[in-house]
Each structure stands twice: as structure tokens, then as C-alpha cells.
Amino acid sequence: MNETWKYLETDVLILGAGGAGLCAILHLMNHHPKPQVFLAVRGLFGKSGCTRMVQGGYNVVLDKSDSLEAHFHDTIKGGQWLNDQELAWKMVKEAPGRILELENRAGCFFDRNPDGTVNQKPFAGQSFDRTVHKGDLTGIEIINRLSEQVAAMENVTIGEEMRAADLLFDRSGQKVTGALLIDLRCGEFIVVQARAVLLATGGGPTMYKITAPCQDKTCDGIAMGFRAGATLMDMEMVQFHPTGLLAGNSMISGTVLEEGLRGAGAYLINGKGERYMHRYDPREERATRDVVSRSSFMEIMAGRGTPEGGIYLDASHLGAEFVMKNFRGMSLRCKDVGYDLPNAPVIVSPTAHFIMGGLRIEPDCRTDLEGLFAAGEDAAGVHGANRLGGNGVAESTVFGGIAGDVIADYLAGQHSKPVQESQIRKMIESILEPFERKPSVSIYSLRDRCKQSMWENAGLVRNEDSLQKAADDMNEIREQLSTISLTQGGRAFHLEWMEYLSILNYLDVCDVIIRSAQTRKESRGSHFRSDFPDKENNQPLYNICCSMNQKLQLSPVLMTRMKTDASESV
């Protein structure tokens, strides 16, 4: 095989153009001399990714009656005390400055109160109404304004529809010094050599049957980091949002109807017409996402769901005018698939939404691999066992900015180091191998089997038998994938090829999710085991860590800023 590639050299390679990646660029450009940045976007710049899909808002302390300590406590309590407290505190402390930066520098305009102050709405799991928003289209506002800023920067090269396949090392094998990309528009390979690499691809647990993120989010950053040798943490913690729209085969089925609806007073109703959350938690519909999702799942499994296999979200009693004014985006999306959110119940289901786990990082976004940084959903630690709604976009923009500042300082002592040509050739040979095989099973059947098994066996409710079934299924899928054949012809926008690469990433990430879930023999946050339904309150708290070359390890949770007392449930 004599495949060639295009070669580019830059100072910083950023993979992902959501809140983390774009804020990193804004902060990189605060430094002199301004570095050269190559921004690789798997989709279209400003029109794709997870941050753009954010509806609800941005948690931040602005009101004098609120406090950083209260936001921090809510975050730690919501995360069931597994959070890295230094990371969580960094997010809480930096968020007020970052929201002002988004308004004053990027040009975001968030909803206001009649007196001109920023409006903050209630979200689940919070002791104070601190969620800043732009109606129910907050992510679009943030991404539109950040994209405008970045697009005008001369030092930034934007590579649209470029998929990162794997990370590259220098000739010593000790430093990450770039990545191998695929230009989806022509199917050609691009090697980008850089002095620093930031993973900001947005995670995305789309390896489940019902899922909220866009389908170009396939845990690329987490999988690439893992294969390169970075340590992953908290991978058993996968968040399922309680209210994913059930809309048959529509592309928007599974997308989130955000909890601002429940914060405003919308009800969850089972197939018998009963409100049920009071049976599971005194906070009812405003309980945290893990509790509400699991409660809804239990109702469905007990035969009290709708004929479609979901439950009802009912906001009609709030008044059609109120719902349409405050949740216009969701109302129009529901209308597109035949629902009338302002006036009638909508069928929803728990939907895979967010991975709390990811690469283990320091508070300055460094990973344990030299030259590699991570921010946003690619990184673990901020959210612990469960993420509060509104903390996701706060995390991505805060740590994206931190990464930009830290990388700028890091570059001062770094010279460009050539990538290994032998590593590149080996990667390309492996990536193209399926084109040389004889026809076999459908790549789409393997994808669907992976999603179904993870949903049934390693999803909202798990146990030893189901997790072993998931592990066996993943092993069989991996074996079949090794014999898969891809359609010959041009490689431009080759959907089968992209599915093949996505499933490879799924399998690496699913393996760590399953093994971590098998190791945690308790129920905590988003991780619920029917064979161990209680918390291990008599045991020290721990995070589960895993790297490619090591077995799973238990790392003690450090209570650096807040310790539990008798009144706290850990």
C-alpha cells in the first residue's frame, strides 16, 4: 500500500469547535506572539457539535444573594461527592468572569429582567436560580458569537469536515505532537504536526439506542486519548437525560426537552395518567437528572409507560402563551414531529446525554501525556457521578479558556518535533484495510447491535449478568468488525467508512464503561446496579481510573475543599 498524505505544521492543533475549542482560541490570541492554530471540525464550522445543541443555559453566580460556595456545594452534592473538587471549584470560580467575557468580548446577549439584569432561571439540583440563558436556544447564541470571533482571526486555519483518526507521537514516542486527520470531502489523509494538541471533541454517548447528541459525536477524543495511553476516569458514569423526545424514526428523536420546562413546573405523567415522581424523590420533577431518568425508566419497566415505551411531559397547565414565549425552540421542534407542547402532553423517554468520565486532567487541563491537553466533555472530574444541567457549557467555556492560557505559556518552551512516519503508515494501513476485504456483514447491523446491547445491558439499570452480556456482545462485534468489508469506490463522504471508524471508537469506550461499571459494586449517581442498589457508605470514596496499558485502578477521592458530615448523604 503506497498511500500518501498532505502535511501541515502549526503551533496548536485543536480538535473540536464547540465551547471549549473556541474559548481556547480566544484565550490563545490574548498572548503575544499570537500562535498559529489549526482548528479541525468534524462537521461544519459553527453549525455542528454539542454546544450548539445546548438549550437550557449556563450556571453562574451573579446574584448577590447567591454564592460561589452554594454553587460549589450543589455541584459536589449533585455529583455524589465523586467530583475532583479542585476542578469543580475552578469551574464555579471562573464562570462569572467567563459569562461576562461571552457578553462583552464575544457579543452574546442573554435574556434580561425588566431592570436590565441578566435573567437566571431554575434548574434541577440547584439551591438558587442561577441558570443564564437565551430563551431555550442558549447554545446557538454562544456558538454563533464565538464562531464570528474565531472566523475573523488571521492566525486560525479552520478545517471543516475533517475527522481526527488518531493522535501522533514524536520520534521518541514520549510526546504527543499532532494527529492524523481524514478530509471527509475527498477521503484523503492529512498529518498535522503541532507543538501542543487540545482534545475538545465533545464526547457524546451515541453508542446507546436512544441518544441526545448529534450523531457525529462518537467519543472520538476520549477514544483517541485512551489509545494513545492517557488515563480515563469515571467512565461508568453516563448521564441519561430524563426527557428525550420520542419521535419514531425522526432524526430529532432522542433530542432533549430541557429541564427548564420542569423547573417552570411541567409534570411527568405515566401511561396511567398519574404523576409519579413523588414516589421516588421529594423534589419530584426538580430532582437531579440521574434520579428522574431512573424513576421514569422504572415506571416504563413496571408497565406504566405509554404504548410507545415512554412517559408524558405535560406543560399545558403553564399556559400556551408562557410555554411558547419561554420555550419557543422546543415548541417548534415538537410541532415538526406532530406534537403540541404548549397545549398537550408530549411523549418522552430517558436519553443518553453526557459522559461524566473522560481523560483525567489537572486543573490546568494537562493530561498525563506530554503535549496533550483536554477540556469539556473529553475531560473527567468536574461533575463526579452526575452532572447538573447548566454546568456543562460552564465547564466547557471555563476550561477551554484555561487551556488556551496554559497552552500559550507551554509553547514558550517547546520546539516542533517531527511525527513518526512509521506510525502514520501503520495507522493508514489499518484504517484502509476493510476496503481490501471480501463482502461480509453490514456495518450498520453491527452499529445497531452495539447501541441495542449498551441500552439494554449497560444503560440506566445494570447488574453483573447484564454487564457481562454487554461485554460478550462487544467482543463479538469487535471480532465481526475485524472482517468487515467496505464498499469500493471513491472515499469522499464514505458513510460506511465513517461508521466503521465510529464503531472502533465505540468499542474502545464501551469496554472501559463496562469494566468500570463491573468494578463499582454500588449504586451512585448515574450508575445504578440492581444487584447493588445502595451506596457503599461504609467505604472510602474512590474514582475508577483506566489506561490502555494498565488494569483498572481505584483512586481515592480527595476532599480538598468540602468534607461530608453527618447531615450529608455520600
Give structural notes:
- The chain is α/β, with parallel strands linked by helices and 570 residues long.
- Helix content is 34%, strand content 16%.
- A hairpin with a 4-residue loop joins strand 9 and strand 10.
- It has three domains: 5-237 and 356-411, FAD/NAD(P)-binding domain; 246-350, Flavocytochrome C3, Chain A, domain 1 (Alpha-Beta Complex); 421-533, Methane Monooxygenase Hydroxylase, Chain G, domain 1 (Up-down Bundle).
- It starts with a strand and ends in a 14-residue tail after the last strand.
- The strands form five sheets. Strands 7-3-2-11-18 form a five-stranded parallel β-sheet, sandwiched between helices. The chain has a four-stranded mixed β-sheet with strand order 1-10-9-8.
- It has helices at 19-28, 68-78, 85-106, 138-151, 220-228, 260-263, 289-304, 320-326, 328-336, 391-411, 421-432, 443-457, 464-481, 495-519; strands at residues 5-9, 12-15, 37-40, 58-59, 120-121, 131-132, 156-159, 162-169, 176-183, 188-193, 196-199, 232-233, 238-245, 267-269, 311-314, 346-355, 358-359, 372-374, 542-546, 553-556.
- Keywords: FAD, Flavoprotein, Membrane, Oxidoreductase, Transmembrane, Transmembrane helix.
- Its cofactor is FAD.
- InterPro entries: FAD-dep_OxRdtase_2_FAD-bd, FAD/NAD-bd_sf, Fum_R/Succ_DH_flav-like_C_sf, Fum_Rdtase/Succ_DH_flav-like_C, SdhA/FrdA/AprA, Succ_DH/fumarate_Rdtase_cat_sf.
Quick structural gist:
The chain is α/β, with parallel strands linked by helices and 570 residues long. It has helices at 19-28, 68-78, 85-106, 138-151, 220-228, 260-263, 289-304, 320-326, 328-336, 391-411, 421-432, 443-457, 464-481, 495-519, and strands spanning 5-9, 12-15, 37-40, 58-59, 120-121, 131-132, 156-159, 162-169, 176-183, 188-193, 196-199, 232-233, 238-245, 267-269, 311-314, 346-355, 358-359, 372-374, 542-546, 553-556. Strand 8 (162-169) and strand 9 (176-183) form a beta hairpin.
